[in-house]
Amino acid sequence: MIAALERQCGGGSADDGWRGPASDDAVAALTLDERGVIRDCDHAVEALFGYRRSEVVWRHVSMLLPQLAGIDMAQAGEPTSNLRFLCRIGGRFQALRRSGEHMACDIFLNDLRNPGMRNLRMIVRRAAPA
User: Fold this and answer.
1) How far apart are CA 128 and CA 17, in angstroms?
2) 40-60: per-residue pLDDT in tens?
3) DSSP secondary-structure letter at 20?
4) Measured distance CA(45)–CA(28) in Å, rounded
5) Which of 17, 32, 90, 111 is deepest in the core (most CB within 10 A)?
6) pLDDT on residue 78
7) CA 92 to CA 14: how far, in whole Å?
8) Is 25 left (phi over 0), alpha (psi -120 to 50) or beta?
9) Which CATH number does 24-126 carry?
10) DSSP code at position 89
């Protein structure tokens, strides 16, 4: 499902030149380390959250998704069962835009296994109005 979302949205890393959609309906891709620190993100973060890439890299993901503060992100290189559960039950996450506006988001996770490094790919999509 993650791969399908990334293909649908046109890519992933900030290095591939993809600028993302120019609307608030953007889908942002974040790369997190095991502690939840944003290691990389695509430029869709600008459209979705209102922050420049340079303002979120090396910050904890709870800056964008406050309810992830204090939640263990990974254990032994895998997303924790609690985090996977929160993402799979269909509950909405409250995201915080730079402007202070709250918005409901859906989150999708994928484990990225690179030689010598374990990261999580988090896809954040603005939720459709209920």
Assistant:
1) 27
2) 999 999 999 999 999 999 999
3) -
4) 5
5) 32
6) 74
7) 26
8) alpha
9) 3.30.450.20
10) S
Report the sign of the C-alpha dihedral through residues 14, 12, 130, 64, in that order: negative
Alpha-carbon gap, residue 60 to 6, rounded angstroms: 22
Domain locations in the chain as residue ranges: 24-126
Residue type, 39: R
**What size, in residues, is the chain?**
130
CA–CA gap between residue 73 and residue 57 (Å, rounded): 17
Reported pTM:
0.74
- CA dist 59 and 64 (Å) reads 9
The order of strands in the sheet holding 117-126 is 38-41, 27-32, 117-126, 102-114, 93-96
Rounded distance, CA 19 to CA 14, Å? 8
| Among 69, 66, 59, 56, CA closest to 104 | 66
